[in-house]
Each structure stands twice: as structure tokens, then as C-alpha cells.
Amino acid sequence: xxxxxxxxxxxxxxxxxxxxxxxxxxxxxxxxxxxxxxxxxxxxxxxxxxxxxxxxxxxxxxxxxxxxxxxxxxxxxxxxxxxxxxxxxxxxxxxxxxxxxxxxxxxxxxxxxxxxxxxxxxxxxxxxxxxxxxxxxxxxxxxxxxx
Length: 147
Ligand code: DQA
What we know:
Elements: E1 4-9, H1 21-24, H2 29-42, E2 46-51, H3 55-68, E3 71-75, H4 84-91, E4 97-101, E5 123-126, H5 131-143
Residues 12, 75, 77-78, 80, 101-103, 105, 112 line the site of 1,3,4-trihydroxy-5-OXO-cyclohexanecarboxylic acid (DQA).
């Protein structure tokens, strides 16, 4: 059976494609899901894409991933910058974690430069646009020895 990768998305990413397209582009989360699916399939992985506007739900999914997933790709969105709860949950997950940001957060406001999640992430992608998710999936396959 192929290894399962959770792709978790935090607050406001349900609005991808409509929200500040000059920053986050025109592709929707469904488009991202399809791009990741291609990358996952060609690497022999499977995926589960999830999005929530609620911190506790993201924590619950990370805990669920402890049982179900080989790796986590996460765009924590604003939670990146303040959620110790998300960091703690990720610290309790044993597999690879890749942090993804569509925008180049280090080029933006100072409050976006700090990432709690980066204290745990094995790799961080920022500024690759929505393409960063599929790149993260390719790297996940590499980390898991799948290609
Ligand atoms: C984001 C960057 C965050 O600072 C912001 O709060 C988001 C999206 C990104 O993908 O570039 O919601 O994580």
C-alpha cells in the first residue's frame, strides 16, 4: 500500500484564488490538490488534502496523522507565526514535515518572518507560489526514499 501524506492548510486558504491574487495567485486549493496528486502518484505516494480555519482542527489532524500518515506537508497560514499548539503537535509526529508558504514570507511584513513551525520542519518552501506544494510532494518522496 502506498504511503499516505497529509497536506494541511490553515486559515483563509479556502479562499485561495480569490484572496489577494496579487500575493497568492489565481489557482484554487482544488487546483493545488490536483497538482499534488500528480506529483504523489508519480512518486508512488497517496495524499489527503485538508483545510481548516480553526487551530484546534489543525492540531487534531496532526494528531490523526501520527496514526495514518508517513509525512506531513503543511501551510499553517497565519498559525505559522503564533501557534505553539501547532508546533507542539508537529513535535509529536515522527515522520518528515515540510512547511510550505505560497508567498516569500521573508520579503513581507516583519511579523511574517517568524515561524514557530520552522522549529520542527525538515524543509521550508516559501515564494514558489502554489507550485511549491507539488515541489514539496516531490521532496517528501525523496525524504521517504520513494524515488
Ligand atoms: C502564507 C503566508 C502567511 O503569512 C499568511 O498568513 C497566509 C499564507 C503563504 O502561503 O504565503 O495565510 O502561509
